[in-house]
Design a protein that fits this description.
Structural class: mainly beta
Helix content: under 10%
Number of domains: 2
Number of helices: 1
Radius of gyration: 23 Å
Strand content: over 45%
Largest sheet: 14 strands, mixed
Number of strands: 21
Order of helices and strands: EHEEEEEEEEEEEEEEEEEEEE
Length: 342
Amino acid sequence: MKTIISLALGLTLSLTISAQTILTFKSHGLLPNEKNPMVLTKYVDPGTGGQNVVWDFSSLEATNSFTGNVQNSYSLKSINGFEKTNTVLEEFGNYFFFNATNYQLEQYGYISSNGNISIEYTKPFVKMRYPFSFNSTYSGVFEGKYNSNNKPIGDITGNYQVTGDGIGTLILPEKKSFLNALRIKEVKSYKQKINGNTTSIEEITYRWYVNEHRFPILVLINSTYTFENGQNSTSTKAAYNSNIISSNINNINDDNNLKLEVFPNPYHEKVNINLHIDNKSNVKIDVYDIIGKKVAAIADKPEDAGDLTYNFSAKEIGLATGTYIIRVKVNNKETTKKIVEL
């Protein structure tokens, strides 16, 4: 089945992940029925690679926003022509055609938003291979043909290398911190010959991923163009996810003797939320879906000291089974917990 995908997802909390981030098709592959809101920002220096790196991008400023839309790509059959593809990624009306499997993601084509320009890859570019983690790397070559209004106007040839070049802590605006964030560096060097004119292009893309989020949470792209007359030009793009939800299971600040227990998890009917507070406190508990939309308000009032018990069932409020995030806030301290309803 063919699908249209976009960039990334989410909501505003900090994230700590205990295990190294590993990309698989199941956890990070392009899947249908996903919406991925991103915030556009100004390009900044991507920093260094390596282990235990701290990438501090807390000062990024939003310039605009967009949401990639997901739909069944059979609706695009009239403009497709890429028979080997089963997935289509749509951004700003542009379409990127892929063949997605459990082992890799291959790009076979592109169609511009106005439908006039297309690229048909005779040798596809491998966008990702699974599984992929820190120090993973692969490389290859790609070839394709440019078309304008379905008529050939040129070709494209190049090579690429994709490397898991960094693992560490990523800090985004609003002091959102992500441990064990995996940075992937993608370098594409290619020549495009259109109507007899040749341009050399080097495109370097950095993407940061975490285990609990399907799409990259930060993307930085720098492209350098060298023309036949020797002149150069540069273009940049940058976007981050401002809404990603934490899947952290940490207790709420042990200094306040606050303890949170969520069980059973996964669960079938209801999940129990047990909270202990030593002093009278304002307690707020909300539930969000995996793209950051608030779906339920469980508590929002002052509570006396002691043991408190709440519960949640997606089925009871007409929601589908699946993954949700519980956000618990006690006075000025908060934590979150991922739950799975079966």
